[in-house]
Amino acid sequence: MRKLIKQVIPLLLVGGLVMFGCDKQLDITPAQSISSDIALSTSENVEATLVGAYDAMSNGSVLGGNMFYEPDLLADDGEVRWTGTFEEPEQMWLKRLQVENIDVELAWTQSYEAINIANNVLSALDVVDSDIRDRVEGEALFVRSLLYFELVKLYGQPYISGDPASNDGVPLVLEPTRSIDESAEVSRNSVAEVYTQVINDLTRAESLLPATNGTFATSGAAAAILSRVYLQQQDYAGARDAANRVISSNQYSLVTNYADAFATTTNTSEDIFAIQVSSQDGVNDMNTFYAPDEFGGRGDIDILQAHLDLYEAGDDRLAFFFQDESDVTRTGKWINIFGNVGVVRLAEMYLTRAEGNFEEGTTVGDTPTNDVNAVRDRAGVDDLLPTEVDKDAILFERKLELAFEGQLLHDIKRTERSVGALAFDAPELVYPIPQRERDVNPNLTQNQGYGQ
């Protein structure tokens, strides 16, 4: 039902109620005012609006690809090469971001658009049918918290760098903007404030969402993102426990063959949450930039030998790379132009639980060795002995398993590792606040290294 009604109210909301142009400040000055008693007057309309939030989140500038492949370019240290003609991703790869970078700007504006749609849903819960109200609230909170988490990681300093209570994060806008009169020049909240809001939203979402929910957010999806949040804070017990809740729910299972976890048009048993893409709807910009033209992409990101050398002989993950018609190495993860864009999958939860247990000296759910070997077994490589499983081994396994899925930069930052000569919290590894946003809102302070 939700798929059928998706085009009704979201277009109204995005077109006239929450849309904001490139020359507007982040607080979303809409093109026109639409009365909420018209746009959000029935339970069906609110559900349609909720699907609009998912659609906005799946934009290519957000979770449809750019928020994954571009941070990976920023984190690269000689394992890939950008060969495309677009200047914006090249700036990422070279670690020379400019305040006018349009990709940086669109990630910001499109994320806040989706957040505002979610806020509109949350403001209209009183008209939602009681039997679905918890789910609707949980899904809207999930969308909002996931996007705030991605924003604060990209535009703010790492949580563990300095004092998160004083470091600038991103503005928290928690009420919907429905008219021009409501616009205001908002300021950036602290990193700590954003993380607190994200944790609160995800915790409530997990308590409200069902275990199964089609392709929409579930309690497991909320717990999985929570595990990432806690890792960023180096709260290993919290990350361990959240990952364990996902694993022990028995709602997910590793697919038998590594290759079968990717380039699929439907969710696999391993997918905890994925952006849905089809020939009629959705964008897969991971395909656009990782896949060669014979698979519908541009082939702008070459995989170099330095990355391939990380894998053991016989590793199925190594075999998943291939040579295109130009003899350039490509990853097989994104070869389907209409394949879903995976956001989080079960293999990551095993590695998170392993890391959390190792750091805490515990065996919640299972031992670190068994969890790491569950991932390695599926990849077709030999088990590690307990004496071989330490923090470095777990992080190395994570790098191989999640390669080119958008997690590298965030893992580097939370573990205080460097990117070449750049420290984990170097200004070059933080997005600038878009200049066009600052031009109309002087309350938005700029990040270090980008001028004031």
What this model shows, in words?
- This is RagB/SusD family nutrient uptake outer membrane protein.
- Pfam families: SusD-like_3, SusD_RagB.
- The protein is mainly alpha-helical.
- It has a domain at 9-209 and 418-440: Serine Threonine Protein Phosphatase 5, Tetratricopeptide repeat (Alpha Horseshoe), CATH 1.25.40.
- Helix content is 44%, strand content 5%.
- The chain has 18 helices and 6 strands.
- Strands 1-3 form a two-stranded antiparallel ribbon. Strands 2-6 form a two-stranded antiparallel sheet. Strands 4-5 form a two-stranded antiparallel ribbon.
- Strand 4 and strand 5 (329-331) form a beta hairpin.
- Helix 3 (43-57) packs antiparallel against helix 6 (102-123), helix 7 (133-155) packs antiparallel against helix 8 and helix 9 (219-232) runs antiparallel to helix 10 (236-248).
- The longest helix has 23 residues, at 133-155.
- It is globular.
- It starts with 8 loop residues before the first helix and ends in a 12-residue tail after the last helix.
- The model is unreliable at 3-34 (pLDDT under 50).
